[in-house]
Amino acid sequence: MSNYRIQGATGEWEVVIGLEVHAQVTSNAKLFSGASTEFGAEPNAQVSLVDAAMPGMLPVPNRECIRQAVRTGMAIEAQINKYSRFDRKNYFYADLPQGYQISQLYHPIVGEGQLLIEADEKAGIPEDKVIGIERIHVEQDAGKLMHDQHPTMSYVDLNRCGVALMEIVSRPDMRSPAEAGAYVRKLRSILRYVGSCDGNMEEGSMRADVNVSVRRPGEEFGTRTETKNVNSVRFVMQVIEHEANRQVDLIESGGTVVQETRLFDVASGTTRSMRSKEDAHDYRYFPDPDLLPLELEDSFLEECRASLPELPDAKRARYENELGLTPYNARELTAEVETFARFETLLAETAKAIGKDEKNVATPVANWSLSIAPGVIKSLGDEANVEHATAARQAAILKMQDAGEISGGQAKEIFEIVLKTGREPGEIADSEGLKQVSDTGAIEAAIDEIIANNADKVEEYRGGKDKLFGFFVGQTMKAMQGKANPAVVNQILKDKLG
Amino acid sequence: MTEFTELGVKDIRDGVAAGSFTAREVAESFNAAVADAAELNAFIVTTPDHALAAADKIDADRAAGKTLGKMAGVPIGMKDLFATHGVQTTAASHILEGFKPEYESTVSQNLWNAGAGMLGKLNLDQFAMGSSNETSYFGNVNSPWRKAGSNAAMSPGGSSGGSSAAVASRIAPAATGTDTGGSIRQPAAFTGICGIKPTYGRCSRWGVVAFASSLDQAGPMARTVEDCAIMLEAMAGFDPKDSTSLEMDVPAWEAGLSADLKGKKVGIPREYRMDGTDDAILKSWEQGKEWLRDAGAEIVDISLPHTKYALPAYYIIAPAEASSNLARYDGVRYGLRELPEGAGLQDMYAATRSAGFGDEVKRRILIGTYVLSAGFYDAYYNQAQKVRALVARDFEQAWAECDVILAPTTPTPSFPLNSLNDDPLTMYLNDVFAVPASLAGLPAMSVPATLTEDGLPLGLQLVGKPFDEQGVLNAGLAIQQRANFTAKPEKWW
Fold it and tell me: What separation in angstroms does the CA of A221 have from each of A173, A224, A276, B118?
């Protein structure tokens, strides 16, 4: 249970949040035409006759878009509807050439599903929580109006017009900005795992309509407002925070919340009314007579399921249970596709180099991937060329460390040189003298000298002052100029001090 | 010398192939006939060069010994609902005046690929909405037929009124039509020619200006059943660009023609015997039964109990789809744009659509918008869809008892232009016998049967099972052979 509450003048209020996330489907071509979907082309360079709604043009469903929606539904454990249908949502606007958007109101392709958000004490999520997903449907995106190109006219760019979107509609199950933020991040992660959406919120590949209402804890839902087209996790959280407080203030000062569509103003972090329910369009939905119902065959569904990768929750569980990683490491490594991909490549490479099972090298590889390597890269700033940091080179460093040939500090120094120059780690260790001494003879000689020079401390140690062991280690390392293998030093010291 | 304009599709194709005459001679004759028939107002634009170029190509192909297509050397009229590359395509509406597509409709392309040429773009009711060809922005089409002893201008039917007038007047051997609720069959019946609407999905809708997507279907209009069979073979075929296109091979309808109906059962739907049906129509229906019996068929009574609900359902579904299909004509990207001084986007929409659409189109957009509105959707649109399903079920049950259905095409013969303009409901009743087959997506044809006492043509309608165009054509052929309809309008233009 979220304990997030708005403290009003008259008591506590609970926030109720539902999200409609529009995710652009990753596909080469648009939902119903062959035009390209690539981002950033010249205006109107990617517009087919169908997209421009020329007379007599007809939509033909793009199988890949359907496939991606089905795979996404499977990834959220949703019911896949073998029968679905496209409907027309009718309204006039200059960015909508057909005068209607082809969407799915009555029979969406994906039904009930769910998504797990994980406990995160720091973020204010005390325990794991399952968020219900009502449906996913597929629809066309609209074009874009440009108002800054001409003093009295608006220009229309139809490149985005007809691109496939998945609208992923949650249940009103979230109770805090943090939960909503976690939901969007998790959803984004799943979409990216599945490969059905690139999740790029800056380019508009993912945007959310945020539904917010407030109520006294335990009472009926209040009237909700919908804030449209919010395009970052931070903004989603800001919208909720602002809307919840605005609604509480409104109710407590004797007003009522009206059901309406609102817009988020990024500059001020506030929302403002766009249109009320009374002005709402009558979209005159009806089944699109240009398109037959979509009927999915079992073989198609099987292919979709077989093509799904290991998903975030399963991967995280495997990292903990099979690789023995800490819950923190497992969560961090599985959050982003790039992160786990780098980790798994390096893990395989390192296990092979060392000749051990992956689970036996997973923890050092995880630590290296999550904190050591990023730390070195960050400290170098512009000097680092990450292209040099191949999996093979990093595995070579980890192997030397595993064998005791280099210390943790030396590993970082070697990696620094790798990043700057692209030289090979083994060669760096040799030529730069970045190796530990494991030669027991040299270490023994140094220890013998230290024991001889510190007879009093040896007596004290042998008399029970165990803490002095650290002193001898320090002295030895100093004598060895930091290059002695600490394990070897410890062993010899223990033997000699008795 | 052969009077080329008296020739039909088969005559021309076979004559050109045999070298009896050249395709160019034929094209020149029809181009001249078209130029001479401006008073009919059958064409919105004429394209004599297109016809000549196609003819020359056929003559050259023949000289080179190449295989000629199904329509080789046949110049035809193209209903101006089909997009034709570089040639103005208007749907007979001001809102598309001057619009020249950068693409060619699948059906017209199929015809050119089969060796046909284009005489011009034929007039029609605006956006194919009408039953008299009086809603065109480019003026009424005059039927070549007149009542005996009268000079009153008669309706050629609609919406394919330019097509029917052109074929009946011998200024084109054949023409394309489209049929949403009778727009091929009714004008064919009014002008004494043949016209077939195939099974929904046989002809691609790609590049055809949409009226009501779930009903629109292209088909041929010509003077004989054989010519319709030939031309339909050229027009039909699966098109991946139309999701509702039938993924089936096109049968060899011409080769399959047979007027022998032994073993076939012809259904006579009792519900089509309606009040207000002309005596002459009922008489010709009786005559039709005799002809088919004579051809070997057994005549059986059948029932299509939901017939009387078909027309009201049609006038909900078709306008509903039209209201949405016509939303794209908004003045933003092509066609007419009315931009009054200081107008915003909404003002531009209103001004453009007010000026661009005719009254009948506006009427149907209003009806369609209303029946899809929140609070009315279930009562109208959903209810109409249920009726549509019941109408289709009536036919399915009838096929247990018969192979093809015989009925009148229209409840009356042609009427004078301007006589029904103030009475849209009576006008809509023209399609009462045509609409059920449209709602059910069935192949249906009109063939000329006889003349009324006033000398106006009457048609008989044949409705077939899904995909059984052959059965429809064969029954049509049996009637054609017995009706021996040779009447033609006296030239007054």
Answer: 11, 8, 19, 66
Q: Count the neighbouring beta carbons within 10 Å of the beta carbon of residue A129.
A: 19
Show which of residues 153-182 on chain A sit within 8 Å of chain B, judged by CB atoms.
154, 156
Kindly name the residue from B105, B131, B159, B169 that is annotated as catalytic. B159
What are all long-range contacts of A92-96, with beta carbons under 8 Å and residues at least 24 apart?
A92/B327, A92/B330, A92/B346, A92/B349, A93/A142, A93/B345, A94/A145, A94/A154, A94/A156, A94/B330, A94/B332, A94/B345, A95/A142, A95/A143, A95/A144, A95/A145, A95/A156, A95/A158, A95/A161, A96/A142, A96/A143, A96/A161
What are the residues whose beta carbons fall under 8 Å from the beta carbon of B475, sequence distance 6 or more? B261, B264, B266, B292, B295, B297, B404, B406, B462, B464
Catalytic residue chosen out of the listed positions B136, B164, B183, B204: B183
At the topology level, CATH places domain B4-258+445-483 in Amidase signature (AS) enzymes (3.90.1300)
B interface test, pick of A48, A54, A279 with most B CB neighbours within 10 Å:
A54
Single pTM value for the model: 0.91
Q: How far apart, in whole angstroms, are the C-alpha atoms of residue A489 and residue B57?
A: 97
User: Which chain B residues are Cβ-neighbours of A94 within 8 angstroms?
Assistant: 330, 332, 345
Q: Return the residue in B93, B209, B328 with the most chain A beta carbons within 10 A, the one to mutate for interface testing.
A: B328
User: What end-to-end distance do the CA atoms of chain B give, in Å?
Assistant: 23
Is B131 catalytic? The answer is: no
**Do A3 and A126 contact (CB within 8 A), yes or no?**
yes
At B338, phi and psi to the nearest 5?
A: -105, 115
Nearest of B242, B202, B194, B234 to residue B218 by alpha carbon: B202
Question: Chain A residue with minimal CA distance to B89?
Answer: A55
Q: Which residues of A touch B343 (CB under 8 A)?
A: none
Strands (DSSP E) found in B34-141: 43-46, 75-79, 117-122
Can you say whether the dihedral through the CA atoms of B164, B166, B169, B170 is positive or negative?
A: negative
Q: Give the helix, strand, coil percentages of chain A, each rounded to 5.
A: 40, 20, 40
Q: Write the pLDDT tens digit of every residue in B148-184.
A: 999 999 999 999 999 999 999 999 999 999 999 999 9
- Parse chain B into domains and list their residue ranges: 4-258+445-483
> Mutation test of the interface with chain B: which of A95, A284, A285, A295, choosing the one with the most B Cβ atoms within 10 A?
A284
- How far apart (Å, rounded) are the C-alpha atoms in residues A381 and B97? 64
A94 interfacial to chain B (CB closer than 8 Å): yes
Render A55-88 in DSSP notation, one character per residue.
Answer: TT------HHHHHHHHHHHHHTTPPB-SEE--EE
Taking only the tens place, the pLDDT of each residue in A128-186 is: 999 999 999 999 999 999 999 998 889 999 999 999 999 999 999 999 999 999 999 99
B-chain residues near A286 (CB < 8 A): 320, 324, 372, 377, 381
In contact, A74 and A314? CB cutoff 8 Å: no
Distance between CA atoms of residues B245 and A59, nearest Å:
12
- Residue B244: name the closest of B264, B224, B266, B217 by CA: B217
Q: Do B114 and B220 contact (CB within 8 A), yes or no?
A: no
| Token reading at B179 | 């049929």
- What is the per-residue pLDDT for A28? 94
Residue B394 half-sphere exposure toward CB, CA atoms < 13 A: 27
Task: Please write the tens of the pLDDT for every residue from B282-315.
Answer: 999 999 999 999 999 999 999 999 999 999 999 9
Residues of A in contact with B334 (CB under 8 A): 54
- Name the E strands within A232-299: 260-265, 270-276, 286-287, 294-295
Report the gap between the CA of B275 and the closest CA in chain A (Å): 34
User: Residue A168 belongs to what H/E stretch?
Assistant: strand A164-170
No. of helices (H) and no. of strands (E), chain A: 16, 16
